[in-house]
């Protein structure tokens, strides 16, 4: 896969889909010492995305909030970069454990922040309006590896709301966006600029 110029489709992949009806580790309100919540997590081969609602059957479905977090995305390359940074064996961390809904490969999610984009995995375009990063929480150190939370800062994923309905499937996917894309940056860290006084 090569760099995609703005407005041109880019071939990528959906590596995994993650759906859970409830929050097993909700932001910072639950201490890992208290244990994981009871909600089952599934890894289907396809999901139904509903405009303005999210992924049918997921914990954020119908609960679109100020966080614009109806659907979350995660780059598989980000976790590979974390493995390298932490000195772990390649492939030792499962990106599904980050509990982002859609794990992708070949997409620079940071370039999509606050942009619109569409994905087509064979059933037609599903459009999204992106917000900001899905910031990693303390649970990343427990579920993935010690140090993973800090290593994921600036590449923790993307929050977005669907603006059209459709189906997304594991496998090849086409990304359409006006944002410049370079798949080589999919695992790169973007640091927030500090505010001037």
From TrEMBL:
Pfam families on file: MOSC
Domain MOSC: 39-177
Gene3D superfamilies in UniProt: PK beta-barrel domain-like
Superkingdom to which the source organism belongs: Bacteria
Protein name: MOSC domain-containing protein
């Amino acid at each position: 896969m090569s760099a995609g110029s703005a407005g041109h489709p880019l071939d990528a992949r959906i590596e995994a889909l993650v759906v859970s009806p409830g929050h097993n580790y909700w932001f910072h309100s639950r201490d890992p010492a208290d244990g994981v919540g009871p909600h089952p997590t599934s890894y289907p081969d396809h999901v139904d995305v509903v405009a303005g609602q999210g992924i049918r059957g997921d914990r954020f479905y119908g609960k679109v909030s100020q966080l614009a977090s109806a659907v979350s995305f995660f780059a598989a390359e980000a976790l590979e970069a974390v493995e390298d940074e932490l000195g772990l064996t390649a492939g030792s961390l499962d990106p599904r454990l980050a509990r982002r809904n859609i794990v992708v490969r070949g997409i620079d999610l940071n370039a999509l922040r606050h942009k619109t984009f569409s994905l087509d995995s064979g059933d037609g375009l599903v459009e999204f309006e992106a917000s900001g990063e899905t910031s990693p929480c303390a649970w990343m150190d427990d579920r993935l590896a010690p140090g993973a939370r800090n290593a994921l800062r600036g590449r923790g994923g993307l929050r977005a709301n669907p603006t059209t309905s459709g189906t997304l499937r594991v496998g090849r996917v086409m990304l359409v966006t006006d944002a410049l894309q370079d798949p080589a940056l999919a695992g790169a860290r973007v640091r927030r600029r500090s505010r001037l006084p």
